[in-house]
Amino acid sequence: MATYAIGDIQGCFDELVALLDRIDFDSSRDQLWFTGDLVNRGPRSLAVIEFVRELGDGAIVVLGNHDLHLLACGYVEDVSPKRKDTFHDVLDSPRRDELLTWIRRQRLIYRDPALGYTMVHAGIPPQWTLAEAEKYAVEVESVLHGEGFAKFFTRMYGNSPDLWDRKLSGWKRVRLITNYLTRLRYCSVDGRIDFQYKGPVGSQPEHLIPWYDLYVLPDAAESIVFGHWSALHLSEREMREKRIYALDTGAVWGGALTAMRLDDGQFFSVPSSIALPIAD
After folding, report:
1. Residues 163, 175: contact at Cβ < 8 Å?
2. C-alpha separations of 86 from 14, 48, 67, 137, 154 in Å
3. Separation of first and last alpha carbons in the chain
4. CA-wise closest residue to 217 among 121, 122, 123, 108
């Protein structure tokens, strides 16, 4: 058995099939972790969702910002797809309701102490331990999985608050936890999240720091895998030194789709046939 973590697919189903062939994936023995953003911008969001869903317990999924945006469009009348959104195949599917329910019931963070890996879509702020990140994620998941979930999507959008405070409550608390886990790239030294800068390290103002350079892992047995930041371009050496593995290699922007075998840290990639203009 092998466990592979796969970066943001974003509707690039053909690339996913090619990558699984590259790693000789066998659903009867192997497990796949997905760093979120299964959908949007690429051409085949529905095929990706249906495939991953069919894997059952063989797939571990954390939600990304594009996945949450799809859910908002599916559940809230006042939220419509944006001009560049490409998940209409999911919204138009006769299985729409069951697919949206499956997506909504996924996690925001996943931690496997035996393997020593924590998976999140975007990042974890420096104020939180891994255990706290799990606990705060459960706060949001309980809303998403509960009966009043639709209200979440009417309160999800927004950039405020942008700094963690344990005293935060209500929708402000839920929104900030969600933003940290699904939108974080840069933050200030005190953990104030920045929503503007998305480019490679060195392009940001001096007061902004990549979240992973502020994050202190508890011991050498712990590592984090994440997606979301296709412009990051960390080398394998840098990732191993930091024990922070950035797996979004821009499949939807003409880059590659990448998997990392968690058992031994080996990387596998396939080139993308898609070349969209670089965006978020």
Report:
1. no
2. 15, 13, 12, 27, 21
3. 34
4. 123
pLDDT in tens, 111-157: 999 999 999 999 999 999 999 999 999 999 999 999 999 999 999 99
Q: Which two tokens stand for residue 216?
A: 């202190």
- Say how far apart CA 269 and CA 271 lie, in whole Å: 7
What domains are there in the chain, each with its CATH number?
A: 3-122+196-271 (3.60.21.10)
| Omega within 30 of 0 (cis) for the link into 161 | yes
Closest CA relative to residue 192, chosen from 160, 166, 228, 169: 160
Structure tokens that stand for 105 in this block:
């019931």
Whole-model pTM: value is: 0.96
- Strand-strand pairing, 209-210 and 244-246: unpaired
